[in-house]
Amino acid sequence: MLYDLGRADLRIKWLVTCLLATLGISYVFGALMVSLYAGFTPGRVAATYAGRAMSMPMPPETTMVMEHPMSMEEFMKPEVHEVDTDLLIQDTHVHVPMYGVIAAALSLVVVGLSLSRAWALGLITLLFAAPWLDFAGMWLTKFASPHFAIVTLLGGWAMGAGYTVVATLAMKQMWFSQVKEGS
Amino acid sequence: MKQLLLTAALATALHITPAVVLVKRPDAVQALLPGADVYLAREVHLSNLDAHRLHQVVDWSPEDGVLTLYTGKAGATAVGALEFVRVDTPHGPIEVAVGFTPQGTVRGVIVTKATVEMKPWVLEAVAAGLTNHYRELKPGEAPGGAAALAGHTGHLAEYIAGEVDKGVARALAAYGTFYKTART
Question: Whole domain around residue B150: which residue ranges?
């Protein structure tokens, strides 16, 4: 095969290394942002995306008021970051194209690795399926059941796993294998 | 390849920056309900009809059809009411706290949240006196913060003032329509 990262020119190897390092940094901060706004447990993800719809799905026939005391401590409590339908539409619109571009970039790295066709196809599928699962989980949590929060978590972990596998294999084959450059 | 690069550039340009807290909610509560030592959260669950009425007036419906108004008392004396309103913009959400006096006029407005991108625009608008223009507004009156700032600040501060206007208009409509009239 003409495109083989293990035998590629030094400049290509350096380009791929920089790409993976940059994506790695963005993944680390992505994980930190998730921990701030949605969390890593099904309960917190469900609270973020299902919101109050979980407890009161239908509007009442006449407007009703419920009143309860609030302490200043309750105002201080960290708020649950709720993502309503409008914001989820916006999030999906801005994130999915970028996830597609990242999955495509990592897939181009996969194509240049010495892997069996089945493994390469599996990895490419994982790279694209992870964001699909991530956002499918969010929508299903909002409109089907809070239990689907687990799908979003699976998608997130799959994204991390896909990146880790690709980055590890690429680093190993580009910099630590015995194949001579350009041979 | 050109298409790929264009998509990447577009996605980067549209990416919403993270939210930042400009004023913590407890600080906003203390500033807008001064002296209060007892607080109540009044959750107004809107019927379809009322949600539709509100939407017609200010082109907005609260999240999940629930308006939350906070009231404060100092002993037995009412200090006023407070609402936190979120405004979704193409640059991400901002949150505006609008406080009312017991007489039903706006006591003050504080922008409590924005995004990293919008923070300097908000700070510029507030420094130019944006929130002063909302004082003593009554339900039924239109906020004119953006108009007041026109020509005195940069375009982005003026733009954000328009978004804050929307938040204040929503709070005025919600307070005027549902604060006292809803059945408990």
Answer: 21-178
The verdict on residue B85 lying in a domain is yes
Mean pLDDT of chain B: 88
Most B CBs within 10 Å, among A75, A85, A95, to test the B interface? A75
**Residue B76 confidence (pLDDT) above 80:** yes
Q: Which SS3 state, helix, strand or coil, does residue B20 take?
A: strand
Give B-chain residues touching A59 at CB under 8 angstroms. Answer: 45-48, 51, 65
Could you tell me which residue, B1 or A136, shows the higher pLDDT?
A: A136
Residue B150 clears pLDDT 70, i.e. is over it: yes
At B112, phi and psi to the nearest 5? Answer: -95, -30
ipTM score: 0.73
The backbone torsions φ and ψ at residue A119, rounded to the nearest 5 degrees and listed phi first, read -65, -40
Instruction: Scan for tokens 């980055």, then name that residue.
Output: A167
Distance CA B126, CA B149 (A): 10
Residue from A65, A88, A101, A108 to probe the interface with B (highest B Cβ count within 10 Å): A65
Q: What is the pLDDT of residue B7?
A: 44
Q: How many domains does chain B have?
A: 1
Question: In Å, how far are A177, B17, B79, B164 from B110, measured between CA atoms?
Answer: 60, 21, 17, 9
pLDDT-above-90 percentage for chain A: 58
CB contact under 8 Å between B45 and A52, yes or no, is no
Domain assignment of residue B63, yes or no: yes
Q: Are B65 and B46 in contact (CB under 8 A)?
A: yes
User: Which range is least confidently modeled, A127-131, A166-170, B5-9, B159-163?
Assistant: B5-9
